[in-house]
Structures are given as structure tokens and as C-alpha cells.
């Protein structure tokens, strides 16, 4: 107390009184740092998506590596700042052949690739010939050879492997091709001088598909982007054996940019890797819905837990757990649960039930499942067996769009190498290649009987108009319908001369010399 205040008779002020009804604040909840550390979800370590792909031991010979890999990685060091950002969760890097092989066991991945591969060869091809010369015998021999060598089944396997791994190979097995030196020489593209020299008549032993994991690329150009062999391997190691690229035809359906080609072992994006985020969402949703259905209703009994747990003696806590076991054993609609009633100061047991609504789970689950069809482009009716609902709902439009995309994929994926295979078959069967021989993919969409009859009726009326106007002769139309594809008139006799309708095809006898023709004959 200051002296001036003492002379004034003042006193030290008393502390302010606490407001009536206000209690001291309780200490806040303290969370240890160790608990926070344990609650953190561990993050996946970043993966460099530009590192070369790894193959099993023995696929590449000892000391072999992707050409100029070190120089490429050193010169592209600026890419190191891009890969840690979110690419692990979405699979933005090559998953590796072992993991892709594991994914091929799941029906969600396998069915997508199998459906696409089956549709790619379901109608297969039609060997064609241009020009006026009849080459039906040569075409029949080519078709028989394609069936004998199992080309159709091999191309189906190629499409499946590309869907699983992003790359597939077709090995051209020729006599003498097993020799180490010979295996490294080119056999050409089918119509050049190298093919004529290497593929002789009767030299083809067959075709064999090889999975990407057993093929290691080597010998590609990384210095001149304007060169034809830019990032295109000229040689492949097949389980340690060097094979020229023309003998081991490479199929890649979805190529990646040049920077990522060494990381993908010069393959492409597999359909499994593209569908992985959507399949993961579906699997997680499916498991969550199943867990929610199994525990959507929670029941319990409110009891005095303190009294139960502090009963003392050897029976401490046992009564509490026995009460829980009894409730669980009798938790059924066919049983009867008896609860304790309040007596005196004894507390009563109280039953409660909490249920989770399940009204929209089917919609959420179906939407997650349908996303897998979106990324693959396969209609729901083919992938999942789900038909569109609603009045006049139809999947015809979606199926036709799917067939159009399959046809485009056939041309792009099969086209270049399929022509080479047909030319090699010609060299094996005839010793030469006919440049007028080609092929066409059969249309996947086919008309039903009613639609085909309507088309024939329209064609018949059009032909009648041309005949009446003198543009066509009847024999021209007879020849067309007799030789048309899938015609019902294949046995039509074209040797019969049919004139215009209503006119006699018999010519009158010429008159004798000096005799005037009669009017009846003139008519």
C-alpha cells in the first residue's frame, strides 16, 4: 500500500467476486503428440515415372540395358520436379508386369479386355481382290492357310495381351529362324525384296504370340526425331535371344509419349491401368455397401455400467459381460428379450435401436459400377448385362457406337501387321505376292431377317426402275443378285437369256428369197 493511500484511509481493493452461478472452467482435452502421429495415414512414396521398366532376370542378356538410358535421364532432369504430384494415387506410372498380371485375375479387368478382343475377331476379315481377273482360287487358298496357321486366334490373344499389359508380340516362325545370326536379320514387310529372299515357298512354320514381359527392347534411335527409327526398337531380346523387329511384330494399342516409352518398355497404356481408378472405386463401394448392410441396425441396452464394473470380489466385471452375451444370444426376432424393471433405487434397463436408411445404396453402387463401362467404352449390356430402363429404352445406339469404335481400333491396331501376315502367307503358299490381294474387316453390325428382306425389296424396285429406263438389262441384275454376298440366289443359272417382261424371246424365221414377210411375223 502506498503512503498516500494510507493517509487517505484507503484500503487495498478486494478482488472482484465471481458471478453467481458461474463455475470454474474445466481443463480442455489434451491430445498427446504420439496420438496425433499415430493418426496420420502413411503416404505412398513418390515413384519416378520416367525410370526404365524392369524385366525378369534372363529376359535381357547380362549387361544389356535400354540404349542411351543414362543420357536420356540426364538430359531430361527437368522432369524430376513433375512426378511427385499425385501420380501415385491415380496410377500415372507404369504399374509393372507382375502387378498387371495380378490384375488380369480380377473379372472387372479381365472381362473388359476379353470383350474387346472377342469383338475384334468375331466377324474377322474377308480377303479381297481388285481387277477383272478371277482370283477366287487364290483367295480360297489364302483363307485356308490363315485357318491352318491359326491367325484369327493369334490376333485375339494379341488384343487380350495388349489389354492386360499394353503391348503384345507376334513371332513369325520361319525355317532356320532359330539360328542366332539369322534371327537378327530382317525379313522385310512382306512385299519388299527382303521378304522375297527370306520367305520362300513352304518356309513358314507358323505364328506364335509372345507376352510383353519376355521381350526386352534394344537398339532404338534417341538422337534424331526426324529419323524413321526414332524411339522404335530394331531389335528385341526374347528371353536373352536377340530377334529382329520384323520377325517379332509389335502391337501397341495405346501408345504413350516418347518421354514415357522407356518407362513402359516401349509398350503403351494397358486397359487394366486405365480402368484401375474406376475399378478401385467400385471395389471400395461394393465392400462399404456390404459392410453397411450387415450392420445397418445397431441395438443395445442401457445399464448402470459403473455398478456392473465395480461389483467387487471375484465377480468383478463378469456380470457386465454376461449381460452382453445374453443380449447378443437372444438378439433375434424369434427370441424374447427380458429387461430389468426399476425396483426401488435400482435403475431400469433401457433398450435402444439405431438404423441406417438403405434407400439409395443401390443407386450409388450402380453408378460406381457403370463408371467402369465409361472408361472402357463397352456398353453396359455387354459388360455388366444391365439393360436400359424406361419406356422404349434400347441399347441399339450404344452397341452401334461400340461397333464403330471397334472397327476403327481394328484398322489402327491390326492393320499394318495384318497386311504383312497375309503377304507372308502368300509367299509361303505361292512363292510370290499378288499386290491386288487385300482384305476388309467384316462389319460387326448385322441385320435381322426383316431388315434384310426390306433391303432386298428396295434393291429390287430400284433395279426395276433401271431396267424400265434402259440403264440396265435383266441379265445384269440377274448377275448381280447371283454373285452378291449372302445372296439367297447362289444357284441362279446365268446361262439362260431372259428378255424384257412381256416380250417373247423367240425370233421369227427369216423369209425365203423373193418371199415377202407376213404381217403376223412382223408383229
Question: Any key phrases for this structure?
Answer:
Anti-CBASS protein Acb1-like N-terminal domain-containing protein, 40% helix, three-stranded antiparallel sheet, 523 residues, single chain, flat, alpha+beta, Acb1-like_N
Gap between N and C termini, in Å?
154 Å
Low-confidence stretches: none
The global form is flat
Helix content range: 25-40%
Order of helices and strands: HHHHHEHHEHHEEEEEHEHHEHHHEHHH
What portion of the residues fall into strands of 2 or more residues? Answer: 5-15%
Explain what the structure shows.
There is one protein chain. By secondary structure, the chain is an alpha+beta fold. The chain contains 18 helices and ten strands. It has helices at residues 3-7, 33-39, 69-75, 97-103, 107-121, 136-148, 151-165, 180-183, 193-198, 271-294, 305-309, 318-329, 361-376, 380-383, 396-430, 449-468, 474-483, 519-522, and strands spanning 125-129, 168-174, 204-211, 215-218, 235-238, 241-244, 248-251, 297-302, 350-355, 437-441.
What's the topology here?
Elements: H1 3-7, H2 33-39, H3 69-75, H4 97-103, H5 107-121, E1 125-129, H6 136-148, H7 151-165, E2 168-174, H8 180-183, H9 193-198, E3 204-211, E4 215-218, E5 235-238, E6 241-244, E7 248-251, H10 271-294, E8 297-302, H11 305-309, H12 318-329, E9 350-355, H13 361-376, H14 380-383, H15 396-430, E10 437-441, H16 449-468, H17 474-483, H18 519-522
Antiparallel strand pairs: 1-10, 2-3, 2-7, 4-5, 5-6, 8-9
Amino acid at each position: 500500500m502506498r503512503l498516500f493511500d494510507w493517509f487517505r484511509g484507503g484500503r487495498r481493493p478486494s478482488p472482484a467476486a465471481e458471478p453467481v452461478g458461474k463455475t470454474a472452467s474445466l481443463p480442455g482435452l489434451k491430445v498427446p503428440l504420439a496420438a496425433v502421429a499415430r493418426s496420420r495415414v502413411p503416404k505412398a512414396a513418390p515413384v519416378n515415372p520416367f525410370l526404365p521398366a524392369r524385366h525378369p532376370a534372363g529376359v535381357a542378356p547380362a549387361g544389356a540395358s535400354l540404349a542411351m538410358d543414362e543420357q536420356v535421364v540426364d538430359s531430361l532432369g527437368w522432369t524430376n520436379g513433375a512426378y511427385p504430384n499425385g501420380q501415385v494415387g491415380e496410377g500415372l506410372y507404369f504399374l509393372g508386369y507382375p502387378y498387371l498380371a495380378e490384375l488380369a485375375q480380377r473379372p472387372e479387368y479381365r472381362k473388359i479386355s476379353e470383350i474387346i478382343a472377342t469383338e475384334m475377331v468375331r466377324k474377322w476379315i474377308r480377303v479381297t481382290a481388285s481387277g477383272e481377273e478371277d482370283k477366287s482360287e487364290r483367295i480360297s487358298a489364302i483363307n485356308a492357310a490363315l485357318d491352318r496357321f491359326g491367325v484369327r486366334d493369334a490376333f485375339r490373344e494379341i488384343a487380350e495381351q495388349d489389354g492386360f499389359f499394353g503391348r503384345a508380340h507376334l513371332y513369325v516362325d520361319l525355317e532356320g529362324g532359330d539360328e542366332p545370326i539369322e534371327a537378327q536379320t530382317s525379313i522385310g514387310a512382306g512385299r519388299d525384296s527382303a521378304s522375297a529372299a527370306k520367305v520362300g515357298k513352304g518356309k513358314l512354320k507358323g505364328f506364335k504370340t509372345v507376352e510383353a514381359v519376355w521381350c526386352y527392347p534394344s537398339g532404338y534411335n534417341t538422337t534424331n526425331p526426324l529419323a524413321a527409327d526414332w524411339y522404335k526398337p530394331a531389335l528385341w531380346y526374347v528371353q536373352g535371344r536377340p530377334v529382329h523387329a520384323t520377325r517379332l511384330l509389335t502391337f501397341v494399342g495405346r501408345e504413350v509419349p516418347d518421354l514415357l516409352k522407356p518407362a513402359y518398355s516401349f509398350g503403351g497404356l494397358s486397359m487394366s491401368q486405365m480402368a484401375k481408378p474406376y475399378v478401385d472405386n467400385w471395389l471400395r463401394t461394393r465392400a462399404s455397401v456390404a459392410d453397411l448392410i450387415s450392420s445397418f441396425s445397431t441395438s443395445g441396452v442401457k445399464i448402470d455400467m459403473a455398478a456392473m464394473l465395480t461389483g467387487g470380489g471375484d465377480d468383478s466385471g463378469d456380470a457386465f459381460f454376461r449381460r452382453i452375451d445374453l443380449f447378443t444370444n437372444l438378439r433375434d426376432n424369434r427370441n424374447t428379450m427380458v429387461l430389468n424393471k426399476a425396483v426401488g433405487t435400482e435403475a431400469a434397463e433401457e433398450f435402444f435401436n439405431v438404423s441406417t436408411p438403405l434407400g439409395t445404396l443401390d443407386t450409388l453402387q450402380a453408378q460406381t459400377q457403370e463408371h467402369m463401362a465409361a472408361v472402357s467404352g463397352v456398353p453396359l449390356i455387354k459388360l455388366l448385362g444391365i439393360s436400359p430402363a424406361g419406356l422404349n429404352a434400347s441399347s441399339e445406339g450404344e452397341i452401334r457406337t461400340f461397333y464403330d469404335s471397334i472397327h476403327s481400333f481394328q484398322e489402327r491396331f491390326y492393320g499394318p501387321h495384318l497386311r504383312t501376315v497375309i503377304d507372308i502367307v502368300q509367299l509361303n503358299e505361292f512363292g510370290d505376292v499378288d499386290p491386288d490381294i487385300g482384305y476388309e474387316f467384316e462389319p460387326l453390325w448385322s441385320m435381322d431377317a426383316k431388315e434384310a428382306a426390306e433391303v432386298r425389296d428396295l434393291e429390287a424396285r430400284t433395279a426395276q426402275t433401271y431396267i424400265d429406263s434402259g440403264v440396265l438389262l435383266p441379265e445384269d441384275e440377274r448377275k448381280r443378285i447371283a454373285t452378291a454376298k449372302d445372296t439367297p440366289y447362289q444357284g441362279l443359272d446365268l446361262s439362260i437369256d431372259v428378255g424384257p417382261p412381256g416380250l417373247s424371246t423367240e425370233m421369227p424365221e427369216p423369209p425365203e428369197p423373193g418371199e415377202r414377210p407376213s404381217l403376223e411375223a412382223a408383229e
